[in-house]
Design brief:
The protein has nine helices and 34 strands. By secondary structure, the chain is of the alpha/beta class. The termini are far apart.
């Protein structure tokens, strides 16, 4: 079936790279010029489980075609080349085409596997592919994955042919909002707060060589009250006598060392541990060796932080959100994570870190990652820079239920959507994978399963499952959504002015937060997705007017903190498509309010009342 595919796929991408360029239909960010089509996003993609010297980045130019979705046979010829890992709809893909539910996107690439990778088992990794992905190696179907936000891999060892040259093909089908799967803010007909679809590969594709026995994953959970790190290992192919050696270091100095059986759970003792916080984002390095008969058969490096997120009543009886057993007011922007040129994919790693760096400089200590999951390196940047993260679950299967955003309001409306079994399973499967894959990042302090009733279903069941799956974090069951009083947090949305739930009614049982407010808009000529019909919750004509209004929001917000408000989220970090309510323009070239001015106006929020 795939013979014709391989006949046309043998194109040397390096020879073709001179022909690649951004599509040029929309805005470009400042980093578009830094994209190297031969080695886009070359950084090691998995910072929490790192092996050195035995991996190969497959990002770059691939062949592509778009075929009818009901056609399972590979393309007879290719439409051209696409720059992986930028989604096909994006400027940086070099293509800029839509796909939709009636078509499938095919990728193909002839690769040359590095010689040092061929002596062991070979894994093919994908950071993320939206949505259903069939992977072929040398004309054989290796496997299928469904889910647009979780990394996955296949053992391709038995599919390899002799020598270094191997052929890879990938078929992707993505219905966007014509299907019930999680898809976040993507929509086939973008408008308002809904954005351009993302189809296909949007994170790094890479090869990794491992032995017959190897460390597949770790689960690291700090306990600052006991001064220990709970560590569990997933090991493939372990034998009864295998051991693991764990070494934790702080600035190069060994602070803990353990040698024990590989299949036993571990508590790594860390007396007098240095705690992680936005003011002091201290990270410990971790080295893990898998030993057999005293010989190292696998070795990975990782890192961790000692920090705790919890809730507890203050002296007035109000539940407060605590960081390391102390109340810290959390304030940050709603961060959509979209780019004008890469859509879901930041042009470069420097660009990926930029929003976090600027957010920190502006005086925020938290980011709400809104209806999207980022590449692992984004969370590593948050860990290193000291940024608290609220992580949303990307929504899907919207409609069919009411949105009653007023806590305490009596309503006979349907608050939980009646979703099909398949729809429920897509959500549950993806949410479980997201929580598992992001567990080790200390910056994440809250999980948010639902937002504004979008596809909200079985709220109590999903929330309680999330709480059981990760007791180390707080659960915000429905940010601005239908309140069914489960989880740790009661979260309202209110635009544009600050507000909070009645603390006397709700503050004794749940942490009170303002999950969205603000949305002050300022279009900046020459930096808009479109020059007319832009949108914000409240629009202004110049930066001075904008900052005057913003200062009033901050003054009013501060008044709510002593009443029981624990956190607030301002909409938003950047403009996104026709939304112009960002603190920065979509291309990140203009910061609408000076960074220092924002920092000064935010300082009073963190001072004790």
């Amino acid at each position: 079936m795939l013979a014709l595919l391989w006949a046309t796929a043998n194109v040397n991408a390096q020879d073709q790279s001179a022909g690649w360029k951004p599509v040029g239909k929309k805005l470009l960010s400042a980093w578009a010029a830094d994209v190297n089509p031969q080695t886009p996003l070359p950084e090691y993609p998995r910072p929490q489980l790192k092996r050195t010297g035995n991996w190969q980045n497959l990002n770059g130019l691939w062949n592509y075609s778009i075929l009818p979705a009901d056609q399972q046979a590979a393309p007879r010829a290719f439409a051209g080349q696409i720059l992986v890992p930028y989604p096909i709809e994006s400027e940086l893909s070099g293509v800029g085409k839509s796909v939709g539910k009636d078509q499938a996107l095919w990728y193909a690439k002839k690769i040359k596997v590095a010689k040092n990778l061929l002596s062991n088992k070979l894994l093919l990794h994908f950071g993320a592919v939206d949505w259903r992905c069939d992977v072929y190696v040398n004309e054989k179907l290796v496997g299928t994955h469904e889910g647009g936000y979780d990394p996955f891999s296949f053992d391709i060892t038995k599919y390899l042919k002799k020598g270094q040259d191997q052929d890879i093909a990938i078929r992707v089908w993505d219905p966007t909002d014509d299907g019930p799967q999680p898809r976040g803010k993507q929509i086939n007909r973008p408008h308002g707060i809904w954005y351009t679809p993302v189809t296909g590969i949007w994170q790094t594709v890479w090869l990794e060589s491992v032995g017959a026995t190897y460390i597949e994953a770790t689960k690291q959970t700090p306990d600052i009250d006991k001064g220990s790190l709970k560590l569990a290992l997933d090991i493939v192919g372990t034998q009864p006598a295998d051991q693991v050696q764990i070494i934790a270091t702080a600035k190069g100095q060994v602070v803990a060392k353990v040698l024990q059986a590989a299949d036993a759970p571990l508590d790594l003792s860390l007396p007098n541990a240095q705690l992680w916080s936005p003011d002091s984002p201290f990270l410990y390095d971790l080295e893990i060796k898998l030993l057999r008969n005293g010989k190292t058969i696998d070795q990975v490096s990782s890192y961790f932080a000692m920090r705790k997120i919890s809730m507890q009543a203050d002296e007035t009886g109000m539940q407060r959100m605590l960081l390391n057993n102390k109340f810290v007011f959390q304030y940050g922007p709603l961060d959509q994570g979209w780019w004008p040129d890469g859509l879901y994919t930041a042009p470069t790693d420097e660009a990926l870190a930029f929003d976090i760096i600027k957010t920190k400089e502006m005086g925020f200590n938290m980011i709400r990652k809104h209806i999207k999951v980022e590449p692992a390196r984004w969370y590593r940047h948050c860990d290193s820079l000291g940024m608290l993260v609220w992580q949303d679950m990307p929504s899907g299967d919207l409609g069919g239920n009411s949105w009653d955003m007023h806590p305490g309001k009596i309503s006979g409306n349907l608050l939980d959507k009646q979703r099909s079994e398949a729809s429920e399973n897509y959500h549950k499967k993806e949410w479980k994978a997201i929580i598992k894959n992001l567990h080790n990042f200390p910056s994440i302090v809250m999980w948010v399963p639902f937002n504004e009733a979008w596809g909200q279903f079985k709220t109590k069941e999903i929330t309680e499952w999330t709480m059981a799956e990760d007791p180390s974090r707080l659960i915000n069951s429905a940010s601005g959504g239908n309140f069914l009083y489960t989880g740790h947090v009661l979260d309202i949305h209110n635009y544009p002015d600050p507000a909070m739930p009645d603390p006397q009614l709700f503050g004794k049982k749940e942490v009170l937060v303002l999950g969205e407010f603000g949305g002050l808009g300022l279009p900046v000529e020459g930096h808009n997705w479109q020059e007319k019909d832009n949108w914000g919750y409240q629009s202004f004509k110049n930066p001075e007017e904008l900052f005057t209004r913003y200062k009033k929001l901050m003054k009013d917000l501060k008044k709510l903190i002593p009443l029981g408000l624990s956190a607030a989220v301002y909409t938003q970090t950047t403009d996104v498509e026709i939304e112009t309510n960002g603190l920065m323009t979509y291309d990140r070239k203009v910061i609408k309010i000076p960074v220092q001015s924002l920092q000064e106006v935010h300082k009073p929020l963190y001072q004790k009342p």
